[in-house]
Design goal:
Order of helices and strands: HHHHHH
Radius of gyration: 17 Å
Low-confidence stretches: none
Largest sheet: none
Structural class: mainly alpha
Oligomer: single chain
Number of strands: 0
Number of domains: 1
Strand content: under 5%
Amino acid sequence: MTSLGHSLVGASLGLVCMPAFEKSRNRLLFQVGFIAVASLPDWPIPGLGHYRLDISHSVIVNGGIMLGLVLGLQGVGGSKLRTYRLVIAGVLLTWLSHFLLDTLYVDSSMALFWPVSDIGVSLPVPWLKTMPHVPPPIDRRILLIFGYEALTFLPLFILAVIWRARRTQG
């Protein structure tokens, strides 16, 4: 998976969950935050990310972190948390989307339930492939991978833009 697919899905979910900000700067920062969360398990954190996929791509490990964050927010925010529950749910869904998207690649198998199970989960979509090398160089094969990801996930973003536009008009 490239960051393009994760970014498009993160931006799509961000549009759906975005509060009515008056300033465009706040809307942009909100979107950047959702895009960052969509790629969070791949961040180059020593001992995590692509160094340790079993940990960084485990729904159990990440679910525990998410639960801790929500409980921490509840302790700090209390009743104000209800105001932002759609945003919080969107962030969690965006974070979880990373794992589902990674299983869609033909040459990918994720041990999503580590440390309980090492069984790999793969839900391959025939045209989605992982990158054979990290660009550069950008060759024909890399361009095709980006193109297929754009064709697969861009419609979701377009639907989110349309939904957002209709929601703000009403």
